[in-house]
Amino acid sequence: MSPRKSDPRLRSVLINTAARLLSDEGPQALSTRRIAQEAGSSTMAVYTYFDGIGGLVHAMVHEGFARLEEHLTSVGATEDPVSDLALLGRAFRHNASHNEHLYAVMFGGCSLAGFRLSEDDRQHGRYTLRNVTASVSRCMAAQRFHPADPELVSHRLWCAVHGLTTLELGLYLVPPYDADRCFEDQLVSLMVGCGDAPESARLSVEDSAGRLPSLGAVGV
Fold it and tell me: What is the DSSP string of the chain?
């Protein structure tokens, strides 16, 4: 069938299909014919929307970070900045679990069929940190965190949560040290490491858990 630009779903379907094939079967599965077949579309659709496989690979990266940013911007500011920051960590993990195939593409967890990420592609990941950096600044202003470079602290948190998320998606975290247990412990430890008092950190992290259902409304 002919691709229809008026169909708002087709572009997303093609991206999701390509990411799933790349993650599950490797770069050899990333052909216009296979993607179109799996997506129930035509090979021409790949060229119409992405100008070929190369454009589709870059679109997967950008779409993945767009969905991550949507999750992070869904976290509103409250009177407890540490709870807000913890919820941002939960939003990061929630996005990864609901966009697992895209996550592998975004952060180089799978081969990109011979295509390389550009500096612009990678900068999309850094842009999403602005929400985290703003939240860290609020924690410092409230004297919950030690004075420091907010952007450097946000990078520290990003590295830590990304590491746990990668292990979780790889099914490396199993009982009794499963992903949930490790994540809750990590959140409290990170907040304390930034300067918060242990009991205050624990209460704020627990509060953020109660706000987690609000992330279910975020599109995936």
Answer: ----TT-TTHHHHHHHHHHHHHHHH-GGG--HHHHHHHHTS-HHHHHHHHSSHHHHHHHHHHHHHHHHHHHHHT----S-HHHHHHHHHHHHHHHHHHSHHHHHHHTT-S--TT----HHHHHHHHHTHHHHHHHHHHHHHTTSS-S--HHHHHHHHHHHHHHHHHHHHTT---TTS-HHHHHHHHHHHHHHHTT--HHHHHHHHHHHHHTGGGGGGS--
List Cα–Cα distances, 11 to 35, 46, 95, 154, in angstroms: 12, 9, 19, 32
Of 115, 105, 74, nearest to 169 by C-alpha is: 105
Positive or negative, the Cα torsion across 71, 155, 133, 127? negative
| pLDDT above 60: residue 6 | no
Q: How many CB atoms lie within 10 A of CB 23?
A: 18
Assign 3 a pLDDT band (cuts: 50, 70, 90): very low
User: Which residue reads 């949560």 in tokens?
Assistant: 161
* Mean pLDDT confidence for 99-112: 75
Determine if residue 52 is left, alpha or beta; phi over 0 gives left, psi from -120 to 50 gives alpha, anything else beta.
left
- Work out the mean pLDDT of the chain and round it to a whole number: 88
* Whole-number Å distance between alpha carbons of 120 and 180: 33
